[in-house]
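Sequence in, structure out.
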Amino acid sequence: TWFDIEDTVSAFFLTRVNGEQHRRLTPFSTTTASAELTQLQLDRHVEIDTGYYSLGYANSGDLGDYNSDIVWLEGFYWDALNANSYERLTYRFPLSGAPNGSTTVTTFYNSTTDAVGLKPDTRGDLTLNGSESTFLESDGPGAFSLSINKQHGTNGVAGLFSVKLFATGNDSLRTNPRYFSEMLLDWIHVRSDIVPILDSGRLIANHGPLSANHQLVIHNARSSTGFWIDTVQGTWGRLWNAHEPNETYTTIRAGMSYRDRDWIRTPITMDTLRASAVFNDDIVSIENIYGIALVTPSQVVTGSVGSDMNDLVSAISGLTNDAPYAIFNTGVATPSSVRQALQQKGLSVPATKFWMMSGTVSHAGSVASSDTDPNLSTTSSTPNRNDVRFDVSTIVPASASTSTICYSDLDGVDRVAISRTRLGLRTQAVAQTDLIMVTHATHRQQAERLAAHRRTFNGIKVSVVDIDSVLEDFGYGQRSPEALRLYLAWYYNAAPKPKPATVLFVGNASWDPRLAIKGGNVGARRADQIPTYGRPSSDYYFGLLDDVNDKAVPELIVGRLPVLSEADGRAMVDKIIMSDTSVFRPWMRKWLYVGGGTEPEGLCDFYKYVTEDPFGSGFKVSDPPLCFDTTTLCRYEAPPNAGYIIKQQISNGLQWMNFIGH
């Protein structure tokens, strides 16, 4: 079972080996248990692809002077953190850590920079709830992980957890004009011993080997019944009301901790603290409090000294019996007026410096206190006739190994789309092939027509494959360019000699399929039929089959017919066949190069290099046997009627036209 909390789509494959019986989930209906299971293990991967990193080119806005040119670093990321700009990222999530357990948070990031001669050029710092940081220093580009661990203590930990990753860099190098340091956060992994609580009706968690059946109570269900599925043991069972019929509960997870520091060099202070409370699924967070604070799902009332305690006393006095609350004291002496207001509600005030409590007036929940440590937490599931949440119970079967179980109330079950997959490319025999054609379903008919033409006209062997089959077999349903390259590498290695020489993609591509690039040209986004790679986009990557970093020697020549509709594909194939089969005419050797920018370098100068044999091969395109007649038209030196000249050239007939510019 793989759980990616932020992905919009999760693809699961239900597969069987040829001849194997379909596996069914076995119902588990035992109602007796010899022990109670009070905690589970959360193992959660969190990945938010809201950014994009491109190798680009110098001055492109995507690439600094010292950024890496390693191809595999390019792609979608959570965020790019620039140490030169003191950048950092904060991620928060509700959690109720079990007593005496632990929580480990690991960040996975790539360093893209290599400030040559300046070492170490990268440092990352990681904090959890404003704690002292763990850090990692590294030099040069690469993939790294940085973890931080928190022991829970006897009260556990609860509330809104705050993870903060700092691109700290190297302070001693900041004054050097050549220094640059960047980190790309890819994903965060959370592993924690937890109290079983549903979030938005769902929980996916593990438990270790069990020698006997155990009873498990789960809090914060939106219905009095539900289901669970054990994906390791292949069993499923039911959740039922853990208490009396129609008895409802409020689950409160509350915590107080150090404030998140603005920068890693800022000292930790107890002058003010951060507090949070999660009432069922509703989160209330106070970034900066000093004194005493009352938090309910609908209000936050604070007081520190003197007369400003009046509002706090009034709010406490106004609490109804079933109103859920959390109260925090960040280290001030509790005034007698506040103490009396709480005592009138039947709530006793701890004698310690730091304290907190949560629950309802009629059913006092949990209390935590300390004279020295402000990091306090409470977790409670309190009877509340005005709420609509339930505690549910089940029997967890004995197991010899670790199990992963998906728990869900009736409202947490998603409808899934189930379709028959095309999995089978890997099991097919690979014949000797000269040209591999990868096509979108829209263009399959025209791709087959072009393949038939190449077989008869050129006498070559052509293989045609559907892109969806490739993505299912090699990308597990994700529309990733890596899946397409993996397929081509597999096919190339499996094919008998002579190996394939060329691959042709038939279908359009989008340079930003996830709409993740900041300031992108929205109007330029089109259907992503066959993925491309990078920004600026290039299909060159797909020919690098033995090593993606070996950019000099591709194994395949890559081409694309960027057609969008079926009519586009038909017109393109018609043109290709006509060009192949038409009687030669003089216009067929005419080429037009057009440079659309104002700067010569990289635009028209490039055309001049190409036509003048830049590699000293002794061959020019204008020499026999090609004898191409080339015309170069550059914006920075073109006459005023350049547009007319281009139209005239096209009207008179061109074999090839190439444009570089905007």
